[in-house]
Design a protein that fits this description.
With 369 residues, this protein is an alpha/beta fold. The protein contains 13 helices and nine strands. Strand 6 and strand 7 form a beta hairpin. Helix 1 crosses helix 3, helix 3 packs across helix 4 and helix 7 runs parallel beside helix 10. The longest helix is centred in the middle third of the chain and has 21 residues. The N terminus is likely disordered.
């Protein structure tokens, strides 16, 4: 990470030009709307942080990345993730993984997301190695400490206030904790109690990011987890599990309340909520109009709904990937990720609120107000 930090320091040192369009964006990128985007989350947006961990949650092998320029990277997709599309729409290059960021790659932010990670540190232990949200924040703090040592707190604070902080956590706290038979969680908490536990911790974690300088937050809600191939495969009829879909409703509801409270209590903060569940429902209900013909099984996987065993190394995936909603047992295809990224970026308040990411990016925010 030394070269990463040096590059970030250099970026901040260029001072007044941080986040400004110099007219020389590589590959004809659009004007940068923000200086950088910092990303925290799980496998839905991980882009390689688990590659070198002793972890069972990895995607750095073919056919993952089959449609990505450069092949398998650790993204749990055939191509783009949601944050890849958002980065491009913000005028940024693709944000590199913390584990491998170096040189100019890191000038516009860092992705700290890790597959199997959760809000709770204990989440995902079945996969052994993973980087929980608490550790992801510590990794960001490591990055920040080096920058601050070189530039001073005031300059760093001014720059960070304009950056986007994208956070997508919580899926694994259900799929790889609450719903797992080897965890005691389900016997200890009912659904509302578990949602309360998660969001209480989540609020403290987001407040830590605020205290480190974050002001512009984008929070992704949980999707229709009862409709992913892994869950569909548990039902002989292959139907969505309303039990699972209802299970996560209190979490999404609590997150919206949490965001309102944080924005009230943290001066200068702005929070945007991506209604992932509503986006997914729209795609499933109007699949044909979006060009999808297969909505109930993975493009790559084994067993019922191709969801009983997820995509294996060198397995042959479906050829018509753009017509599938799901790539593997748990994750959407790049086609869906791009649609959702665009909706989050410039969609209306039915999908992202109280404003979209483009509007958030254009807000002028002071680190002290």
């Amino acid at each position: 990470m030394a070269s990463t930090l040096s590059s970030l320091v250099l970026l901040f040192l260029v001072g007044g030009v941080l986040g400004q369009d110099t007219g020389s964006n590589a590959g004809g990128r659009r004007r940068e709307l923000v200086p950088a985007m910092f990303i925290f989350g799980d496998s839905l947006i991980d882009n390689g942080n688990n590659n070198n961990l002793a972890s069972l949650a990895k995607a750095n092998y073919f056919p993952y990345g089959i449609d990505f320029n450069g092949g398998p990277t650790g993204r749990f997709s055939n191509g783009y993730t949601m944050v890849d599309e958002i980065a491009e729409l913000l005028g940024l290059p693709l944000i590199p993984a913390y584990s491998g960021a170096s040189g100019e790659q890191a000038l516009n932010g860092v992705n700290y997301a890790s597959a199997a990670a959760g809000i709770l540190d204990i989440t995902g232990r079945n996969f052994v190695g993973r980087i929980p949200f608490n550790q992801q924040i510590k990794n960001f703090e490591t990055t920040l400490d080096q920058i601050t040592d070189n530039l001073g707190a005031d300059d760093v604070a001014r720059s960070l206030a304009s950056c986007i902080f994208f956070v997508g956590m919580g899926s694994n706290d259900y799929l790889n904790n609450y719903l797992m038979p080897n965890y005691p969680t389900r016997n200890q908490y009912n659904a509302p109690q578990f949602a309360d536990l998660l969001v209480q911790q989540y609020s403290q974690q987001l407040t830590r990011l605020y205290n480190l300088g974050a002001r512009k937050f984008v929070i992704a809600g949980l999707g229709l987890m009862g409709c992913i191939p892994s869950i569909l495969a548990q039902n002989p009829a292959g139907r969505c599990s309303e039990e699972v879909n209802q299970l996560v409703l209190p979490f999404n509801s609590n997150v919206k309340t949490m965001m309102n409270n944080l924005q009230t209590n943290l001066p200068g903060s702005h929070f945007v909520f991506i209604d992932t569940a509503r986006m997914f429902q729209d795609i499933l209900s109007n699949s044909r109009s979006y060009g999808f013909s297969v909505i109930n099984r993975g493009c790559c996987g084994i067993g019922r709904n191709r969801g009983q065993i997820t995509c294996l190394p060198f397995q042959t995936p479906c050829p018509n990937r753009d017509q599938y909603v799901f790539w593997d047992a748990f994750h959407p295809t790049a086609a869906v990720n791009v649609l959702m990224g665009r909706s989050a970026f410039n969609g209306d308040s039915s999908m992202v609120y109280p404003m979209n990411i483009e509007q958030l990016a254009n807000l002028t925010v002071s680190p002290t107000n």
